[in-house]
């Protein structure tokens, strides 16, 4: 992996890209940012590791741990919040045994939250693997999680 990251970093340096695009390119190659990738970026660019780590942890889109096979994204925007989005997120956490930003121990499902998914009329809204599930309730969460785990098409 070190050689792969070094090659990506070198290409980005040659193209005159900054640190953020470089980290994006490495994450695209590795799917996340393992510690050895961050060290290699620092070594290759001469940027202090603390600065590389600071950038990698500042932006929400960067991941220091691998994502699960499936992603459950719960909207916590204003409309979703008013209509119970927080309770939906809490039920996902309870059902999966993880907090937002974490992945289940089996590596199957990553739980995330978003400030807005841009479909307020469907609140509270959940997106599973890019598919919207409108008017989600805590009661519907268990069935949806079961469908995701079984690889079934969700009927919500």
Count of all domains: 2
Q: What order do the strands of the largest sheet run in, or round the barrel if closed?
A: 2-1-3-4
How would the global form be characterised? elongated
Biggest sheet character: 4 strands, mixed
CATH class of the largest domain: Alpha Beta
Helix/strand/pairing category: alpha+beta
Q: In total, how many beta strands?
A: 4
Overall mean pLDDT score?
A: 91
Going by CATH, the architecture of the largest domain would be 3-Layer(aba) Sandwich
Percentage of residues in helical conformation: 40-55%
Which percent range describes the beta-strand content?
5-15%
The CATH topology of the largest domain is given as Glutaredoxin
> End-to-end distance, in Å?
40 Å
CATH superfamily of the largest domain: Glutaredoxin
Poorly predicted sequence stretches spanning 5 or more consecutive residues = none
Number of helices: 7
Radius of gyration: 18 Å
Order of helical and strand elements: HHHHEHHEEEH
């Amino acid at each position: 992996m070190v050689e792969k990251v070094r090659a990506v970093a070198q290409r980005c340096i040659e193209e005159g890209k900054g640190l953020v695009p470089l980290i994006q390119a490495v994450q695209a190659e590795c799917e996340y940012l393992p510690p050895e990738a961050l060290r290699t970026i620092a070594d290759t660019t001469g940027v202090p590791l603390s600065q590389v780590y600071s950038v990698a942890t500042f932006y929400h889109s960067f991941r220091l741990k691998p994502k699960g096979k499936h992603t459950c994204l719960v909207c916590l925007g204003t409309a979703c919040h008013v209509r119970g989005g927080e309770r939906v997120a809490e039920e996902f956490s309870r059902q999966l045994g993880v907090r937002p930003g974490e992945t289940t121990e089996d590596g199957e499902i990553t739980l995330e939250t978003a400030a807005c998914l841009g479909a307020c009329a469907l609140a509270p809204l959940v997106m599973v693997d890019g598919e919207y599930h409108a008017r989600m309730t805590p009661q519907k969460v268990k069935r949806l999680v079961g469908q995701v785990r079984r690889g079934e098409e969700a009927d919500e």
